[in-house]
Amino acid sequence: MPTITLSGVSKSYGGGEHAVRNLDLVVPDGAFMCLLGPSGCGKTTTLRMIAGLEQPTAGSIAVGDRVLDSVERGLYVPPEKRGMGLVFQNYALWPHLSVRENVEFGLRMRKVPAPERRSRAEAALRMVHVDAAMDRYPSQLSGGQQQRVALARMLAVNPAVLLLDEPLSNLDARLRLEMRAELKRIHEESGATIVFVTHDQLEALTMATDVAVLNDGELQQLAAPMDVYDRPANRFVAEFVGSPPMAIVETGPAPTGLAASLLRHVEPRAAGKAPAAVGIRPEALRLGPPPDAAWHEEALVEAVLPAGSSWTVRLRVLDAELYAVSYTPVLAASGDVLTCWTEQLHLFDADGVRISSWDRAEATA
Ligand SMILES: Nc1ncnc2c1ncn2[C@@H]1O[C@H](COP(=O)(O)OP(=O)(O)OP(=O)(O)O)[C@@H](O)[C@H]1O
C-alpha cells in the first residue's frame, strides 16, 4: 500500500497568484486524510495535482517510491497511469447503462473477463448497500443511491488510492450522515489510502484519520482530528474548526475587562512571552460552581437557546459577550447571574501561533 508524498508543491495559474504554496504533505499508507479549509484555499487544486489532472508549478509528488510529478526533473505521469480512483462532486453515471453496467464499465475498460467483472461489480454494490437496485437505471435512483453507485464504480476497480472531492455535497443532511458512516466502514474494509476534500469541519472530524487544514494555499496544520480540535496550531485553525467557533479575546497592550481577568489567571502559570490572545471554546465554558484553580467569573445570562440535545447560552462576562454550549439542560433565564468557568484556555502569541505550554487542559491531562 502506498504513502503519498507531496514535497514543496506549488501551483499558480498565471498572474502570479498561488492556489497552493510550498506544500509538504505526507498521506500515510492506509490513511483517510481530509483536506479541510474554506472555499478557495487550494483543496481541489491539491487533489487534482495528486490525480494528475493538474501539474504542479514547483515541487514533486510521489506514491511510495514512484515519482509521479517532478518539476525539477520534468517528470509527469498522466492520470490514467496513476492507478487512482476518483470521485468528484458531479458523479456522472451513464444514464443509458444500468447500475450494474455502470459499475462494470471501469472493469470492462481494464479488460477484466466477464464473470469476474460481474462478481466484482456485485461485491462493490453490496459494500455500498445498493445491490438491490442493481438492474435499475440511474434516473430511477435517489441522489444518495447514485452517489453510492459512483463510489461502487470506483471501489470495483479496487484502487489503492481513492481521491474524493466533496462527494457528499449534493446529499441531504440525513444521507450525508449515513454516507459518512459508510465511507468510514469502506475505508476500514478496503484498507485503501483515501484523500477527501471538504470544507465541512464536521465531515473531516468524523471521518478522517488525519486532517490537513489549508488556508490561502498554505498548510496550517496536519494532525489527527481531535488534535486539530484540542490543540489548534494557530488562530486560523482554532476559529475554523469548532461550531459555534472559539471566542478569541485579544489582550492588547493594556488589557481590561475579560482580557485582564484571563491574563490574571494564566500569567502565574506562564513561562516566557505573554499571550496576545486567549481562546475559549463555547463547549468548554461551563456554568455552576467552579472547581479549584479553574478560571471563573460572574456571568449575566442574556439568552438561553435550547436546541433539543444542547443548550446555547449567550452570556455577558465583564465587558465581553461569550457563548456557552451545554449538553445538559440549562434551567437559567435571561437576567440570571451565574458563575461561568473553564479549565481549557487556548493561548496565542502575537503571530497567532498557539502557545501550547500554557494550556491548562494539557498541563493537567
Ligand atoms: N483553472 C484555474 N484557473 C485559475 N485559477 C484557478 C483555477 N482553479 C482554481 N483557481 C484558483 O485557485 C485557488 C484555489 O482553488 P481551489 O479550487 O483549489 O480551492 P478549493 O479550496 O477547492 O475551493 P472550493 O471549496 O470552493 O472548491 C482559488 O483562488 C481559485 O480561484
TrEMBL record:
Residues 4-241 form the ABC transporter domain. InterPro entries: AAA+_ATPase (IPR003593), ABC_transporter-like_ATP-bd (IPR003439), ABC_transporter-like_CS (IPR017871), ABC_transpr_MalK/UgpC-like (IPR047641), Mo/tungstate-bd_C_term_dom (IPR008995), P-loop_NTPase (IPR027417). Keywords: ATP-binding, Nucleotide-binding, Transport. GO terms for cellular component: ATP-binding cassette (ABC) transporter complex, substrate-binding subunit-containing. It holds the Pfam family ABC_tran. One of its GO terms (molecular function) is ATP binding. This is ABC transporter ATP-binding protein. It comes from Nonomuraea rhodomycinica.
